[in-house]
């Protein structure tokens, strides 16, 4: 294990939780792939007047998920999709196949990638890194209507 040569942190800020705001984001997917929802989440933060706090995203499905990933090079998303397909391939003899050969792999991919995210809000903006974006990942081959619950907890004004 190596030790850090330099560690710094900013001055701490304390926020009195004075607001909880929620909204439901509906996303129509066009089939398997990544859908960038960063702008919609940022709009929610702006619309509720969020100043400092935390926004939570929760997808209400078991064959679609959420992730934060690089937004600069599209080949990153291609490679991630390839990796997920290798980890949970279709037609691999899954017992659960009632909804088609892409259903059980979709459940596995969701288990691996997750159904919720938390993003800090600092100075009225999502505290994402310069190369980060928030993605809904559709794991099924056909289009679906997906719902993402957005909830801000913190200080507004």
Give me some keywords for this one.
about 160 residues; alpha+beta; Jelly Rolls; five-stranded antiparallel β-sheet; three-stranded antiparallel β-sheet; 3 helices; globular
Summarize this structure briefly.
The protein is an alpha+beta fold. The protein has three helices and eight strands; from the N terminus they run ββαββααββββ.
Provide an overview of this structure.
The model has no long low-confidence stretch (mean pLDDT 94). The strands form 2 sheets. Strands 1-8-3-5-6 form a 5-stranded antiparallel beta sheet, with helices on one face. Strands 2-7-4 form a 3-stranded antiparallel beta sheet, with helices on both faces. The chain is 22% helix and 38% strand. The longest helix is centred in the middle third of the chain and has 14 residues, at 74-87. The protein starts with 18 loop residues before the first strand and ends with a strand. The protein has a single domain, classed as Jelly Rolls (Sandwich). It is of the alpha+beta class and 157 residues long. It is globular. The chain has helices at residues 38-47, 74-87, 103-113, and strands at 19-28, 33-36, 50-59, 64-70, 116-122, 125-126, 132-138, 145-156.
């Amino acid at each position: 294990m190596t030790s850090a040569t330099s560690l710094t942190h900013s001055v701490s800020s304390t926020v009195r939780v004075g607001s909880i705001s929620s909204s439901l984001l509906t996303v129509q997917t066009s089939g398997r792939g990544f859908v960038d929802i960063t702008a919609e989440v940022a709009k929610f933060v702006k619309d509720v007047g969020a100043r400092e706090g935390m926004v939570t995203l929760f997808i209400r499905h078991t064959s679609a998920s959420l992730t934060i990933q690089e937004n600069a090079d599209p080949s990153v998303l291609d490679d991630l999709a390839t990796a997920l397909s290798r980890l949970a391939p279709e037609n691999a003899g899954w017992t659960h196949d009632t909804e088609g050969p892409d259903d059980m792999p979709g459940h596995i991919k969701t288990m691996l990638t997750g159904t919720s995210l938390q993003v800090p809000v600092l100075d009225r903006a999502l505290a994402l890194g310069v190369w980060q974006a928030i993605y809904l990942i559709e794991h099924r081959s056909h289009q679906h209507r997906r719902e993402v619950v957005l909830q801000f907890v913190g200080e507004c004004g």
